[in-house]
Amino acid sequence: MGFFKLTIRDVPIDNHIVLVRADYNVPLDKDGKISDDLRIKANLPTLKYLHDHGCKIVVISHLGRPEGRDPKYSLEQVAVRLSKLMDHHVEFVDDCIGDRVTQTIKKSGAHSITLLENLRYYKEEEADDEAFAKNIAKSTGARYFVQDGFGVVHRAHASTHAITLCIPSVAGLLLEREYETITGAMQHPQRPLVAIMGGAKISDKIAVIERFVHVADNIIIGGAMANTFLAYKGVEMGASMLESDQTDTLDRIYHAAHEKVGDEVDTFIILPQDVAVAKEIAPKATRRSVGLETIESDDIALDIGDRTIEHIVATVAKAKTVIWNGTLGYAELPEFAHGSARLALALATQPQTASIIGGGDTADFVLKWDNNGGKSFTHVSTGGGASLELMAGDTLPGIESLLDARK
Ligand code: ADP
Ligand code: 3PG
Ligand code: MG
Fold first, then answer.
1. Known catalytic membership, residue 84
2. Which of 360, 383, 384, 398 is catalytic?
3. Domains along the sequence of the chain with CATH
């Protein structure tokens, strides 16, 4: 089953000016420096392919959500990092349209790489403004547009949609890999497929949970999301973070699960049997693993409990595919990262199980845990919202707008 869009391999791209949309929306530390470069590294195969084919490469991206030209969100430091990773000079231009862009590209030769300044310095970017897209096309003189910013293809912006109306547009290798890995696991998984959902809110992820009810063999729920499930089941959750307005959603989820597995619902959707609580969310807070019936009114459930961790590890041991989205606890604090860390360890030590990890915070967590660019896992997605929407089965505007592959 091939990808349904044309990619850079399918078009005579050699020696042309090629405009590449990357998602270099990298996390920044408190000093404003790049704290993780997965998104830059993930885009390298596409750039190397174009480089080897003699293209003049022009890369565009956004960074953060700036209000106008805020220097905190300049892509200049990304150009420096990219240059190291490509082992090739990357020219940075402090604008993404206009004469300086045109002149720089004109002067550059085959194999050159130019990175343009943050697209979101212009409000026209998020407005999907066609005149702005035309201006990018004209300023760069690009012959092809390559979409490789997987993390942003759920947005219909000038650089993901309007631009495709101006230049013949194909997919890059990262976009193709993300799409094939995620949709492949959702549509034709090696079974058993265990879906693990955690993180902050059910309301962010309803469509994905509902899809997993249909496609997964087990669904494991952790994180603050589990608090909401447990409260729905009548457990007193003390001072834990939860959503009390999700009764209709949970009714729907349990109804669909019941249709699928009958009385096995509570072995199909696995909720924590114990939780790790603290009296406050603070680095010095100590973890207490407690049964569900002993949660006190001022307890905050911040992680899955120790028995639950063992149960999850045992369930995952039988899986052939695991899709994980959402940390299983308040993983920013090590005391409450036990659940997520034990799950990461289980996945890393059973390489025969395909492990697909999506979600901004979950990816950040496993990358720090692994400290090796996520190599311990089959696939760490570069997309947050985009990977969730793809898992939910939505069509993504930044993919739809590319040229169709011939049937
Ligand atoms: P992702 O970005 O991977 O999709 P989310 O944004 O949904 O994940 O959730 C991650 C956030 O959920 C983290 O900030 C984490 O601290 C928070 N979280 C997880 N479990 C809990 C909990 N029990 N109580 C409070 N916050 C939690
Ligand atoms: C992301 O980090 O999810 C993408 O880069 C999109 O960024 P946005 O949520 O600001 O549109
Ligand atoms: Mg998040």
1. no
2. 360
3. 8-176 (3.40.50.1260), 189-391 (3.40.50.1260)
